[in-house]
């Protein structure tokens, strides 16, 4: 025996079949990598969006604040 659990080997074989186009019920390795990158990018964009929302609210509050004239 190879010292590998049979389910691990089975999974590797299924993934190799998918990568070769023999199966279409799973993501290929390239698709998995792309999905990983897209999820990472999506998370970064969500963080940037939250920062922009907070900055927008801050500056809107600054613009709405009544201005006082400095005393001389």
Automatic annotation (TrEMBL):
Keywords: Coiled coil
GO molecular function list: DNA binding; transposase activity
Claim: ATP-binding is one of the keywords in the record: no
One of the protein's GO biological processes: DNA transposition
SUPFAM superfamilies for the chain: Homeodomain-like
Pfam family, one: HTH_Tnp_1
Membrane-spanning residues: none
Keyword Amino-acid biosynthesis set for record: no
InterPro entries for the chain: Homeodomain-like_sf, Transposase_8
Coiled coil segments of this chain: 28-55
UniProt-recorded name of the protein: Transposase
Originating species: Streptomyces taklimakanensis
């Amino acid at each position: 025996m190879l010292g590998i659990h049979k389910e691990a080997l089975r999974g590797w074989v299924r993934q190799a079949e998918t990568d070769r186009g023999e199966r279409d019920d799973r993501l290929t390795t390239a698709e998995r990598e792309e999905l990983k990158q897209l999820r990472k990018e999506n998370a970064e964009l969500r963080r940037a969006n939250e920062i922009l929302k907070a900055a927008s609210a801050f500056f809107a509050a600054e613009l709405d604040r009544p201005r006082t004239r400095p005393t001389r």
